[in-house]
Amino acid sequence: MRALPLSLAMLLLLASIAGAVSPAAVAGAVADPVGEGTESAAGNAESVAASVDPTIESAADALDGADGDRDRPQVDTENLTFRTLSTPSGVDTRVESGSRGANLGSSVGFAVDETDAAMETAAVVQRIEAAETSVERQRRILAAINRVERDEVTLNSRQTEAFSAHATGNLSDRELLDELVRIAATAREYDERLDELDALAEETDGFSSPTRLDELQVALQVYGGPVRDYALSTARGAMPATNVYIESSNRSIVLATIVDDEYVREVVRLDRWDRGGGSISNDEAINATSAAYPETASLREPDAFGAGSVQRITIPHDFGLLRTFVSGGTEQVFVEHQRIALGAFPDTESVSVNGDGFNVTVDRSYAGGPVTVTVRNEETGEPVSDVTVTKSVGDGDSQAIGTTDADGVVRTLSPAESYRVTVVDEPRAVFVDDLRPVATPRPVDDE
Prior knowledge:
Order of helices and strands: HHEEEHHHHHEEEHHEEEEEEEEEEEE
Structural class: alpha+beta
Distance between the termini: 54 Å
Helix content: 25-40%
Oligomer: single chain
Number of strands: 18
Strand order of the largest sheet: 3-4-5-6-10-9-8-7
C-alpha cells in the first residue's frame, strides 16, 4: 500500500485545524448526502458550512412568508406545540449547563482524527484501484465495506459508553462533547468513504454495490447532530461561545443550545433503537413520526430517506425543522433534531413582576428549552436595553445571562430545577423567584 505524500498529509491537517475545508474535500471525497431529498425551512436546499455538517438555513428566516411578510400568519398557532424527546421517564439523569467556546487543544485533536480518517480513505481507494483483476477489485471493495460496518459498531459502543460515563459523573461536559464531536466527524468520514466505494463499484465491470451499503450510510448519519456541529465550530473559533444544556442517562442524551435567533436541540434514545430490527419502509417511518409529532407533521408533508432498518424523516416547516431517525423493530423515533425560531417558540408560560420601575416578564419553558426574559419600563411599557440579567439555579450563585438588547430581551436555557432571574441596574434590582420549568411536551408515544 502506498503512503500518502507528506505534502497532502500536511494540507489535510492544516485545513482541518483552520476549519476552512473538510479533509474529505481535500482528498476528493463525494459530499455528504445528509441533506439529500430535503428542503430548508425557507424552501431552499440545505447549506453546507465549511467546518460543520450540512444544516438548514436559520429557522428565523423561515418565519418569512412567501411574500416576506413576517406579520402574515402561516398557520393557526392557538394549539401549536413542538413535541420533543427527552431522557426516559423514571431513570437517573445528570443535568449540566455550561459555556462552550474556542479550545485549541480540542480543535487540534479533532483535526488529527479527521486527517487520519481521510488518509485512511485515500489509502483504501488507492488499494482498490491498484487491483490487477476485476475479481480482486470486487473483493477489496467488499472488504472495505465490511470494515466500515465493523467500525460503525465501534462508534455505537463509544457513544453508548460516553452517555453512561457522563451520567455517572466519570466524564466532564467538555470531555463528553469532545467525544461526541469526534464520533460525528469519524462517522462523516466513513459515510464519505462509502460514497467512494459506491463509485468504485459502479466503475467495476459486472459488479454493483450491495444494498447494505445504503442502509449503513443512513445508520452513520445517526451519529451527527446540529448541537455537535455548533460544538465543533465553537471549538475551532468559527462561532462565538454558546451555552449548552446537557442531560444524560445510561442510554440517552439531550443536547440543546441557542444560536442567534434559533433554538437547537438533539436527542438520542438508545432504548428506542433496535439494532437488530427488521426493515422499515418509508411510509411506515413517516407514519410513526407523524403519529408521535402530530402538530409538527400537520405543518408540512414529511420527507423520507433511508433503507433497511433505519429511516430518516425530515419535516421543514414555517418555524424551523424537525428531523427524526426511526428504527425498524421498534418503529419508534430514536434520534431527534429540532431547529425552532425563537420568535415563534410556543411552549412557554409567562411570569411577570413589577418593581423599581421595571416590568420583568420571564417566558418559562421545559428543561433545556429556551427562556426569554423581557424588561420594560414599568410606566411606559417601552423596552429597556443594556441592563444586566442573571440566573441562579437552586442554591447556586447567580451567573450573568447577558444584557438586554434593543427589544429589552435576553435569552437563556431553562434548568431542570427551580431558579431565580434577577434584573440589575444599580442601584435598582428586580427578582423573579421560584421559577420552575414547565412540563416537556413529549411525543405521543413517549408521554
